[in-house]
Design a protein that fits this description.
This protein is α/β, with parallel strands linked by helices. About 35% of the residues lie in helices and about 20% in strands. The chain is globular, with a radius of gyration of 24 Å. Bound molecules: NADP nicotinamide-adenine-dinucleotide phosphate. The site of NADP nicotinamide-adenine-dinucleotide phosphate has 26 residues, from helix 7.
């Protein structure tokens, strides 16, 4: 691998940063891969170019035409897939299976929006809901409309999904007619940059519709104007900076935040250790702890079981975790690769120590050593299961997200206590509930729905069908209240709301008819 300086596609041309560059590193081997920089690039020019050239050209097209472009992007990504897997292995240290979550997840999401967009037809605006009568005479009514925002969408993304993180946002933005500028997290910017390069080279989109700027985030938020939007994914600390920026606080730039989250799994108190529900629960917890080495914002961090099943659950999860081999993902016997870099390695080790103030260690795979990886160089951490029999007394267990293969088993005394403990996450992306009792699933959803963007219910009848606690499906909402950032993404065509402005047109039926003639219908 070379240490080439990755180019930025900005203001409609490829531009190299000048001066200081940051080096991306293989998290298993510790070797240098590529460099990124945007030093010296005129940010104002790039944002204005995207708004005018990219935005105007996109909005001149119909939803159907833009949906067709998404389909063409899918074809480009499929054609170049092998290269993306290589980059993912090298830069994210992931196994093929874990790289697939990022790469195939992106392709699936784009394909879904291509299909959804096709249904919106040859229109430039969307009707939102039915006409509403304003008085006795039906001649004068209100029709709500959605028009694409005439600005740019800035995406500031996290390191753990360089592929999906780009396309799950870009698909609804481009379909809406809004140009995209993506700033990938530096640690894994390579895959994002390469995908943008392939799509730009394929000349599918109007120039300026898709730009990538790698390296420092300095100055990007300063470029935003009232009709722009910013979609951020990352830590709560950086989210705070984004939210407090004058562009958001003073210019009403629309802002979507996807932040960290202490997601839960809840086992029905009526479960027995011999049941299918128990097996499904244990498998899902282990899967969530180990997929992408636990570096998923949706991963299960807190595992709630009735006190009577605490020991049995600890034993069952431990038995499965013991089989997880950790190390170099190029070795076919390895089940779990690395964290993204040594910095995250140290963060996760420190995070485990923090949780240990309130939890005991039920299993620590780090004693078993690594396969084909040097522990002094690589960013590999084996799964760690912690446990607490008194989670009501805990603080950090409900507060500290350790972004790695770590979860804490917690014993609850009764279901009301379990609900209260889950709520101490202060708003999460997702929780999963495991039960063969539909009424239990329904009452849990009623109790905890307001605290979660998504509730994933696993029962034996859907054992072979369910999509996984941590997998984000394009048709379902992604995002969570409170600490999870308060954002909303995906959810099918709901995602288009963020990229459109809603207007209430109050007019005569004749004027509303004229408007409706060339409008699509947003059917949710
Ligand atoms: P991060 O450190 O907050 O970085 C996220 C992004 O923000 C990166 O692109 C980073 O650029 C950029 N950034 C850093 N400082 C900034 C500033 N002052 N102004 C503007 N942008 C700035 O988060 P991370 O470590 O990459 O990601 C891990 C976290 O993301 C975890 O807590 C995880 O839970 C969360 N996450 C949430 C979701 C979700 O959908 N809710 C999904 C994935 C991850 P640099 O890389 O150049 O510093």
């Amino acid at each position: 691998m070379s240490t080439e300086l990755l180019s930025n596609f900005f203001a409609g041309r490829w531009q190299s940063g000048q001066g200081h560059a940051q080096t991306l590193v293989d998290p298993v081997l510790g070797t240098a891969l590529v460099q990124v920089s945007n030093a010296g690039i005129d940010l104002s020019e790039g944002f204005e170019f995207a708004r005018t050239q990219g935005g105007e050209a996109l909005r001149a097209l119909t939803y159907k035409q833009r949906a067709q472009m998404l389909s063409e992007i899918v074809q480009v990504l499929i054609a170049n897939k092998a290269n993306y897997y290589d980059i993912s292995t090298a830069n994210s240290g992931t196994t093929v299976k874990d790289s697939a979550v990022d790469i195939e997840g992106a392709i699936f999401t784009l394909s879904t929006y291509a299909k959804l967009g096709d249904s919106l037809g040859d229109s430039h605006v969307l009707l939102d809901g039915e006409r509403i009568r304003m008085g006795k005479d039906p001649l004068f009514q209100t029709q709500h409309l959605l028009s694409p925002t005439p600005g740019v969408a800035l995406f500031i993304n996290a390191f753990n999904f360089p592929s999906w993180g780009l396309w799950e946002k870009a698909a609804p933005a481009l379909l809406s007619g809004v140009p995209v500028i993506v700033k990938p997290a530096t640690a894994t910017a390579w895959l994002t940059q390469k995908m943008v390069q392939d799509v730009v080279d394929a000349k599918i989109l109007p120039v300026g519709a898709l730009s990538v700027i790698c390296g420092s985030s300095a100055g990007l938020m300063d470029q935003l104007k009232p009709f722009d939007v910013v979609s951020f994914t990352g830590s709560a600390d950086t989210a705070h900076i984004i939210r407090s920026h004058p562009a958001v606080a003073q210019k009403s730039v629309r802002c979507n935040i996807e932040a960290d989250s202490l997601n839960s799994a809840l086992l029905d108190p009526a479960t027995t250790p011999e049941s299918d529900v128990f097996q499904l629960f244990v498998s899902e917890v282990v899967r969530e702890m180990t997929v992408k080495s636990g570096q998923k914002c949706t991963a299960i961090r807190r595992v709630f079981v009735p006190a009577t099943l605490y020991e049995a659950t600890a034993a069952a999860i431990t038995a499965k975790l013991k089989k997880i081999t950790v190390g170099n993902p190029r070795n076919e016997s390895v089940r779990m690769g690395a964290l993204v870099n040594r910095e995250q390695y140290h963060n996760v080790i420190a995070g485990i120590e923090t949780l240990k103030q309130e939890a005991s260690v039920l299993f620590d795979g780090n004693a078993s050593g690594l396969q084909d990886a040097d522990p002094s160089v690589s960013a590999c951490v084996a799964p760690v299961l912690l446990g607490s029999t008194s989670p009501a007394d805990a603080k950090v267990l409900h507060d500290v997200e350790v972004f790695g293969p770590v979860a804490t088993l917690m014993a609850y005394t009764d279901i009301q206590q379990a609900y209260a403990l889950i709520q101490r996450g202060e708003g999460s992306l997702v929780m999963s509930v495991y039960s063969d009792n539909p009424s239990f699933i329904a009452s849990t959803t009623a109790a905890l729905g307001s605290h979660h963007g998504r509730i994933h219910a696993i029962s034996p009848d859907v054992a072979a069908l369910h999509t996984g606690h941590g997998n984000v499906m394009p048709g379902s909402l992604h995002g969570g209240p409170g600490r999870a950032g308060g954002g909303e993404e995906l959810g099918g065509l709901r995602a288009l709301n963020f990229y459109h402005r809603r207007t209430a047109l109050q007019a005569s039926s004749a004027a509303l008819d004229a408007m409706a003639q060339n409008a699509g219908v947003l059917k949710l």
